[in-house]
Please model this.
Amino acid sequence: MTDLLKRLCLLDGTSGDEGAVRELIISEIKDFCELKTDPLGNIIAFKKGKKPSAKRLMLDAHMDEVGLIITSVTHEGFLKFKTVGGIDTSALLFRCVRINRDITGVIGGKPIHLISAAERKKLPKCDSLYIDIGAQNREEALKSVCIGDCAIMESDFTLMGDKVISKALDDRIGCALLITLLKEESEFDFHASFSVQEEIGLRGAKTAAFGINPQCAIVLEATTAADIAGVAEENTVCKLGAGPAVSFMDRSTVYDRGFYNAALESGIDCQPKSAVAGGNNSGAVHLTREGVRTLAISVPCRYIHTACNMADIKDIENALKLCRFMLNGICGGEIE
Model:
């Protein structure tokens, strides 16, 4: 799965500009399931299993990643931008970025010898930053970019023992897991969505779930791990190497208690996500139509929403095992 994850992560897919990711996913799954693309750009798939399912189950992973969108070009040829999704300014300063998949720029700011002592004590405001593509003026810049073009933070894909470092592990990990499940033989029928625009408000999942009309759902995600220096034990949220995180509640969802308990009692390495914070596509899915019993299985990820996310390969493998377990238990009627 590591090669698949690498190919997914190195593609550009800012929210609303997921086309390259969508094309790769379709090429991977088209021979293993029925699929279509809906008007928003979600991939909607149906996997035929050996047996019909006791419940109409939907699995979801989002294709998009956080990024930037160009909003104006200055007289000097610098590109002004807004963030697409939640990105801290500290993750942007002096980063290389890629625009339209082939134009390189750098997020510029004042050099340190021009910054006052007072300015050094605080981060600059995001609105003061710009992208420098080396253009001499506005006219030259507009030959390469347009207002509304998207940009992502440049990143390599690096394996470091059991750890993987890359941009967009949120949520290309979920995409890789879902692709794997669709390509392998399944005991039961299930539905799947690779959704768009999660990072700007769970938009794709809302329409995908309405179309699928599931009774139950499993959302495959990556989530913040704060098991890093300077963070107290009670605030670590979840830890790399301890298995996928299973949520009981976040800011958009109270998760199905039966599914939550079944996951933790599965015998597969996993852990509770210990913070009631953030959210994911479950927030849209579980409120669809008459309501959907929902579980989130999330791979812990350090430095999320930066160019250098870090996850543990063992956690990814255990997330796949746990998803198989829950899929078969729900669809087989063993998990109530």
Q: What stands out?
A: The chain has two domains: 2-65+167-331, 67-153. Residues 76 and 137 are 4 Å apart (CA to CA).
